[in-house]
Amino acid sequence: MKLAFWRKSTNEEKASISAAAAPSGGGILQALRRSLAPEPDWSELERALIQSDAGTGVAAGLISAAREVQGGTGRERLRTALLDLMREESPSDAPSTASSEQVILLVGVNGAGKTTSAAKLAARAKAASLQPILVAADTFRAAAIDQLRLLAAREGVPIAEGKPGGDPAAAIHDALTQASAKGLHPVIIDTAGRMQTKTGLMDELTKMRRVIQKLAPTADVEVLLVIDATAGQNGLAQASGFNRAAGVDGVILTKLDAGARGGVALAVRRELGLPVRWVGVGERGSDLLPFDADAFVDGLLGDAV
Questions:
Q1: Which residues are 222's β-sheet partners?
Q2: Domain boundary residue among 202, 225, 248?
């Protein structure tokens, strides 16, 4: 499911995604330059994918899929396999219009970029003529509440704040009540960073989901995991843990422009079936872009959009 303000990327946004996903040199690019023949050195390409943070199992699966593609150079066959993986062929490609109530719950580890992503999503919703509300449910850090308050003011978006040290679920309860009374949607919830291995903190996410279900039973709810694109294979471990605890619907891949190798997106998609919804390619509010599989793959392979 994609919520109502999700839309397809513009050509300019696709170019930005390709530029951010492009490797800085070496690795997969060098391997691809030697892969113009129909039967390239598949072992070299597999090693290059592993070095791009795809992981051994994912790399092996992609190479196996590429070898089954009929016709074309090694690059073209690998591109087909990558696109088959990353394209989302499902009804969720269409924005949801079933409910006027929309809730986005952002989850992830510390430092992944949840708070700034929440503000950027609110800006996109506002640009789509919606009336979003931000929820500061990271009650463990007063600084996080302060940061989201400043970002909300910058975007001209209302905010519901939890009390420092208070129950995050209570903050969500208050926000949903306010949103219902004032017709504010989507409700975009910023949660505290937590390690996927901490059972107590992960159980807290389950409680948040119960509160949302109780107060907004007809709402379209999307749980988005925010992953730092530079996290490498640890990003897959994060996705697996958060998916078990909160039922993740999709991924926001941040900091793709920060020298990331992009392979974590391949791993999360192949191993867990989670689609990338949004990509962060910079610091500006407009630098959170709707994910485009073709642009991402073309960038990963060193091709222009």
A1: 104
A2: 248
User: pTM for the full model?
Assistant: 0.90
Distance CA 226, CA 235 (A): 9
Q: How many domains does the chain have?
A: 2
What integer is the mean pLDDT of 144-149? 92
Range of the domain at 204: 102-248
* pLDDT (mean) for 130-149: 91
Residue 98: what pLDDT? Answer: 46
Three-state SS for 13? Answer: helix
User: Rounded distance, CA 112 to CA 125, Å?
Assistant: 21
**3-state secondary structure at position 258:** coil
Contact predicate 95/4, CB 8 Å: yes
What's the chain's average pLDDT? 85
| Type of residue at 242 | F
Whether residue 136 contacts residue 219, with contact meaning beta carbons closer than 8 Å, is answered with: no
For 58-97, write each residue's pLDDT tens digit.
999 999 999 999 888 888 899 999 999 998 754 444 555 5
As a whole number of angstroms, the distance between CA 187 and CA 5 comes to 12
Residue with tokens 């191993």: 271
Q: 123 and 29 in one domain?
A: no
How far apart CA 238 and CA 298 sit, in angstroms, is 26
One-letter amino acid at 192 equals A
Are residue 82 and residue 107 in the same domain, yes or no?
A: no
Residue 189 has pLDDT above 70, yes or no: yes
